[in-house]
Amino acid sequence: MKVSDKLKQAEDSKQPYFSFEYFPPKTEQGLANLYDRIERMARLGPVFVAVTWGAGGATAQRTLELCSACQGVFGVETVMHLTCTNMDVAQVDAALEGAKAAGIQNILALRGDPPRDAEYWTACEGGFSHAVDLVRYIREKYGSYFCVGVAGYPEGHIESTDADQDFEYFVAKVEAGADFVVSQLAYDADVFIRWEKRVRARGITVPVVAGVLPVQSYQSFRRLVFLTKVAVPESLRERLEDAKSNDQAVKDLGVEHAVAMVRQLQAAGVRGVHLTTLNLENSVQRVLDALGMGEAASAGAGMALPGRAMTSTGAMTSTAERRVWDDFPNGRWGDARSPAFGSADAYGAMLKFDAQGAARVWGRPCTLDDVSELFARYVTGEIASLPWSDEPLRAETERIGEELARVNRLGFWTLASQPALDGVASADATHGWGPRGGYVYQKAFVECFVAGAKFGSFLSRLQSSASRVTYYAANRQGDFLTNAHAGEGTALTWGVFPGRAVVQPTLIDKISFLAWRAEAFQTWREWAAMFAHDSKEACFLRETADECWLVNVVDNDYKQADAIWDLFQ
Q: Are the C-beta atoms of 74 and 115 separated by less than 8 Å?
């Protein structure tokens, strides 16, 4: 059934309605766990679910697989995102034919970001420069078979410098043949309400669904705001700042704000909301429960699933536990078995500077010493970002700031790190996380790039400390070294809280390390692409990427807080 028909039915009922958005997980176990999660969430009664599409078709197979399961196995009307950036006509047709074969009639047509392995933004053959071109093509080639949706931007597209012109581009997309609109998320209901009134005043009558994303964590919220420039009410910003050291309080505040925002939208006559889940369910379900919108979950046996659900302990659990077991991902190194693993990278490309901005902030590196100094300036707070990190370091790294500056100047270019902790109160303003009344622990770890000339001696030191240290190392060519036991992960962070089992939100294993390796090395090429192809800077950055190693070192003796730094000489 076409989503436009379902939205019309929902609007005619005069009752509030909702939809969900998911992204394709990075790992097989994450996909299996997402199937389990979607089965439960489908019982809540969404009008449709949407699945994102990786830039340039990077997730094409997994997106189609996930859409097919949602449509065919779970029986939920499914919208497949489709972007046209760096996609030629053949690729677009293959995606649309795959959707038809899977019984999917609903497409959200987007321009999208360039893929991570593309040095330049490329218009597709046939003129796919913008989403409107994709809408026109679908209509010309497939007629009315597909129900086509487009994105709306209540605050204007991030790349737009003219709000009125941006609105005209939106109108053109609708007039090209769009059947419905899903708006970019907003944190200020008034912003959406004003924009929706402008849309209606222009004579646009297709359904418009408001995008809502409950705040899941302080760090993900900060990153999202940084990348999208979405407006945030000052009251919400201040309350999140006050609660940032208490992960549970941040989630509670995220739910509270989303509920209040949806109620304000409903009072203004906006019935439909599109909930971005980030592949997590607990906060979304709490929002719906508070609004009285979600149907009661069935207590009977579930449908046959394409995979089995497993928690971070490896055991099957109760429905309540399955909802919350990965609620507290702590940084990028969350559990690779979580459907939400890698959510920080699921929306948008990593580098947000243009060439001039990159050169202004990161300089024009031509030597290894240039790179070492750049990383040292970042860890000392002189600059606020790196190609691999789009915001300043967290406060907890101040505890190891001097050592980070030292090792970076020695040529160990750090991407991630944390100090060892031994039973710090979960309410601690700097190091705490999770519910209050508990205690948190973590092992010291450092992840860094190491130039090829230094790697051999560094590896020898790691091997001589193998009884205490776990390491993972890989290069761009795909060579991989580790002393970890096959199939086992290494816990980095864990917490003990009243009335709960031990929570282990952060671990590293081969799967998660290699998933990040591809992105980490690709960022060298993205950085190189900021310069002329044959320039000294571009050649140096590509050569450095080819020669260096990505290394993750975990000191398993968290009682010896500073011992890890002896390895970096």
A: no
Q: Are 80 and 104 in contact (CB under 8 A)?
A: yes
Cβ neighbours of residue 136 closer than 8 Å, sequence gap 6 or more: 176, 177
Token pair belonging to 517 = 């390796």
SS3 293: coil
Closest CA to 397 of 377, 411, 380: 380
State which H helix or E strand residue 490 sits in: strand 490-496
- The 3-state secondary structure of 338-392 reads CCCCCHHHCCCCCCCCCHHHHHHHHCCCCCHHHHHHHHHHHHCCCCCCECCECCC
What burial class does residue 262 get, using C-beta atoms within 10 Å of its C-beta: 0-12 exposed, 13-18 middle, 19+ buried? buried
pLDDT in tens, 157-192: 888 889 899 999 999 999 999 999 999 999 999 999
Structure tokens at 555: 């000191």
Catalytic residue chosen out of the listed positions 21, 39, 196, 403: 21
Confidence of residue 351 (pLDDT cuts 50, 70, 90): low
Residues 135, 141, 142, 143, CA torsion sign? positive
- Residue positions counted in the chain: 569
Question: Whole-number mean pLDDT of the chain?
Answer: 86
Active site residue 11: no
Instruction: Calculate Rg over the CA atoms of the chain.
Output: 24
Edge-to-edge strands of the sheet including 480-482? 412-418, 444-450, 549-555, 469-475, 480-482
- The pair of structure tokens assigned to 309 is 């659900």
DSSP assigned state of 51: E
Q: What is the pLDDT of residues 90-148, one digit of tens each?
A: 889 999 999 999 999 999 999 876 544 444 445 555 557 789 999 999 999 999 999 99
Query: What is the pTM (predicted TM-score) of this model?
Result: 0.74
Helix/strand/coil (H/E/C) assignment for every residue in 137-179: HHHHHHCCCCEEEEEECCCCCCCCCCHHHHHHHHHHHHHCCCC
Question: What tokens were used for 104?
Answer: 């999917």
Rounded distance between C-alpha atoms, residue 476 and residue 221, angstroms: 31
* Best CA proximity match to 84, nearest among 104, 54, 63, 116: 54
Element at 500 (helix H, strand E): none
Which of 115, 540, 528 lies closest to 358, judged by CA? Answer: 528
Give burial (CB, 10 Å; 0-12/13-18/19+) of 498. Answer: exposed
Q: Convert the pLDDT of each residue in 194-220 to its tens digit.
A: 999 999 999 999 999 999 999 998 878
Distances (CA, A) of 520 to 377, 407, 464: 20, 19, 27
pLDDT value, residue 131: 92
Containing H/E element for 307? none
